[in-house]
Amino acid sequence: MDGVTAPVRVVLVDDDQLVRAGLRLLLSGGDGIEVVGEAGDGLEAEDVIAAAGPDVVLMDIRMPRCDGLVATERELRRRPELAVLVLTTFQDDELVLGALHRGARGFLLKDTPPHELVQAVRAVAAGRSILSPSVLDRVIAVAAGNGSGPGAGATPTDGAHERRLLATLTERETEVALAVAAGASNAQIAADLFVTLATVKTHVGHVYEKFGVDNRVQLALVVHAARRGA
């Protein structure tokens, strides 16, 4: 029917059955969201995702047999358009950056308020990236070289590779990349640069291609790493 938007199809992947039940109840009450499958670990998720064809996967990290990091990387190789939203109790640097570098479109903690979780599912389905505020702080700190803890020193580099990537951008692409890394939306960038929204989207797409990334969080990580060593 005209004017009817298809619901966002979601698969839940978590080894805790009670958590999955709670998420199903929560998301099923959200207008325009449909839970189409569940899995208890990343291995089971393989068949569930293949059968259900979801738009979004809510992915736990620490699970038996196959964890969420491995499952995220595997599923996004098969279906690059899939939006993986990590939902976990763990927020150490290594796990956060590991999930984002593998292509996860968002990283939320399980204490996220219900209405924010529903909004996040809709957001990642629409192509946006979502991070819990505390997680965003950690990502920026690590990218800036200020991280601490077991994962802080493992991922950051001296920024040389990232600076080479940044140097491949045109002047306008650089402006757009810096704005995205600062957290600006496409609409904000368009207004600030006095260009159309379509033009901004085109520039963002070119930056993705040159950086070899597929979401705004990964783009921001490249920019912050490049500026850290400058």
TrEMBL record:
The keyword Phosphoprotein applies. Gene3D superfamilies: 3.40.50.2300. Keywords: DNA-binding, Phosphoprotein, Transcription, Transcription regulation. Residues 162-227 form the HTH luxR-type domain. Residues 9-125 form the Response regulatory domain. SMART domains: HTH_LUXR, REC. This is Response regulator transcription factor. It comes from Curtobacterium caseinilyticum. The lineage of its organism: Bacteria, Bacillati, Actinomycetota, Actinomycetes, Micrococcales.
